[in-house]
Amino acid sequence: MAVTIDKPDEKPGTVEKAVPAAPVEKSRKVSRAMVVGAVLVVWLVLFAVLRGRQTLSLAAADLTGLHKWLNDLNDSIGANRNSNPLFLYFFNEIRLVIDNLVTFVQHLISQPSGGRPVPQIGWLGVVGLAGYVSWAVGNWRVALLAVAGFTFFGLQGLWQASMDTLALTLSAVFVALLFAIPLGVCAGLSDRFNRVVTPFLDFMQTMPTFVYLAPLTLFFLIGGASATIATVIYAAPPTIRITAHGIRNVSRTTVEAADSLGATRRQSLLKVLLPMSKRTVVMGVNQTIMAALAMVTIAALINAPGLGANVIQALQSLDVGTAFNAGLAIVVMAIVLDRVTTAASAREETARNSRDRFATWRRPLLGAGAVLTLVLVYLSHTYVWAADFPGDGTVGTHIADAADTATNWAQDNLSGLTNAVRDVITNGLLNPFQTLLTDSPWWLVGAVLVALGVVLGGWKAGVTAAVCVGLLVGTGVWSDAMTTLASTLVATVLVMVLGIVFGVWMGRSALVDRVIRPSLDAAQVMPPFVYLVPFLALFGATRFTAIVAAVVYGAPVAMKIIADGIRAVPATTVEAATSAGCNTWQIITKVQLPMSRSALTLATNQGLIYVLSMVVVGGLVGAGALGYDVVAGFSQGELYGKGLAAGLAIVLLGVMFDRITQAAARRASA
User: Taking a C-beta distance cutoff of 8 angstroms, is the pair 158, 394 a contact?
Assistant: First the structure.
């Protein structure tokens, strides 16, 4: 803005010109874009000259020295598991405790126990307990939903598999909360502890879910213990973070008032901080339950029982109907658990604002409901008809048949369209990019990644990229890592295209946001495996199937972040652009998107992490590369070391791009 200053040696009205900050910022950004473009041009030129040299390719059955060493380590641990003191008195004890917990819950609700052909609590008792608990912590609507959902599992013919999944989920959530809530409280009370624990939480959440499984089986064998521990590692961070956030957000004046009344630190925590942050803590528990449910289905790869095993077996045999039926049960369980915990978090506020005349009768009705529930539990414990779900799962058979019929119809009538889409993206985008990555010399790709890390994220991101590239080379699966990287980046580009289109639409229209957001919330509740089923039917077992499933899995979070960023642009700025004669397209491209660039970068970060996780899961349906290496490592003992190295490679890719995009987001918001 120009300022008029009258000086003695100048004529009145002289304008003192100042250099505006905006052009400098624009110049800096153009310069960064030019550097990125120059790096890419140099890469293409050197690729044309050096194509096919020093690519570090490795055949599917070939092993490096590291892979053989890991195989030997696995064999050595297996041979000395019952004699090594570290295993005898530490790892084996942990496995025993977790196994006993999981077995106890399974014998309680899912599997035969104590010489009985049925569990201790049969289907009628479990349905009664689900309804009563949902009513007690929520309301009658979620209670009806819970009863209907649990009954649906039996009608599908998946009662025991569903209860096994529930048993693993409940066991993992119980163990996770034992650690997560105290750690979250400590992080909320101590800034120093929060700074120490945050990098570990970042690392735990950055790693794709697949990666937890291989190293844990090395110490805890395959089965329920490894599945539960892997689930605890994956599911605990949300509760830690959200609990810490809730504790820190309690009004300081309230805490000071308690201190002035003589409250001790313990009293302040128990009487003020925790009660006032209870709703936030319950939200953290909700996120932990959702993460645990997603993980226990994936843990079927290490012989964990439940619905995940049904899905994996069906995917491996390309039985879309059976996979859809089991996937639908997973979705129903996720929705029930999500709605119950969400209602629990809002229970007190709802009751406080409610003017229901029956509110005074709630406690007596809960007492009567408890008596009825105990009767149902007794009946299910005593009588076979109340313990073993009646029927032969004909509803599930009809669902599977309908899914198969729909699959056949889609393949017969939509194959032209789906094949065209698949071929365009595969031949026009995926294959060229994969060729560029896999046929370039490893050192050239590494140099490009480091250079992009420095340009986009700064020197720290560049150092992280250099370390990750070096370790990727050391894993011996460089070529497979580049194949996975190509699929991941292509899927991320598609995620961002969808994210920008729908995110801008949602951010500019409150009505569109209200219509679309519930579907996005529901999509984020579903475990990753479920996304594979419909696209397997449409596109068959190919790497494109994994990419499309990854796009659908990662797009919701990108859409929501971009919508929030667009909505955060000041209305006055948009009005000023409108009054200056800008049309809608100009407002979006010249005002709203540039001013929400930090949200765009964050959406890229989250979309890439989601996609990386899903592309690896897609190894089950033909994605190949690192996903196949990990899956093969579980099923073929001689490939265990290679699968473990592939898991490490996935971690390195995730850490590298997480750090680069996070640093870029900080630069964009600075």
Answer: no
For 481-500, how does the pLDDT look when each residue is reduced to its tens digit (9 = 90+)? 998 888 888 889 999 999 99
Residue 564: enclosing H or E segment and its boundaries?
helix 543-567
pLDDT recorded at residue 359: 59
The CA distance from 130 to 148, in Å, is: 10
Least confident segment among 53-57, 319-323, 511-515, 517-521: 517-521
What is the spatial distance between Cα 478 and Cα 441, in angstroms, rounded to a whole number? Answer: 11
Residue 44: count other Cβ atoms within 10 Å of its Cβ.
11
> What is the model's pLDDT at position 436?
93
d(CA 17, CA 2): 6
In sequence order, the β-bridge partners of residue 4 are 15
CA 236 – CA 111 distance, rounded (Å): 27
The DSSP-derived string for 88-140 is IIIIHHHHHHHHHHHHHHHHHHTS--TT-SS-SS-HHHHHHHHHHHHHHHS-H
Going by their DSSP bridges, the two strands 3-4 and 15-16 should be labelled as antiparallel
Any idea of the CA torsion for 348, 352, 356, 362, to the nearest 10 degrees? Answer: 40
Read off the pLDDT band of 16 (50, 70, 90): very low
The one-character DSSP state at 86 is H
Q: Phi then psi for 118, rounded to 5 degrees?
A: -135, 165
Instruction: Kindly state the DSSP code that residue 15 receives in the 8-state scheme.
Output: E
Give SS3 for 307: helix
Share of the chain above pLDDT 70, in %: 90
Are 244 and 188 a contacting pair, CB within 8 Å? yes
Token output for 483:
């194949």
CA distance linking residue 487 with residue 550, whole number of Å: 10
Tens of pLDDT, residues 202-241: 777 666 666 677 778 778 887 778 888 888 888 888 888 8
DSSP secondary structure code for residue 143 in this structure: H
User: Is the whole-model pTM more than 0.85?
Assistant: no
- Give the rounded distance of the alpha carbon of 391 from its chain centre: 36
Task: For residue 146, report the phi and psi dihedrals to the nearest 5 degrees.
Answer: -65, -45
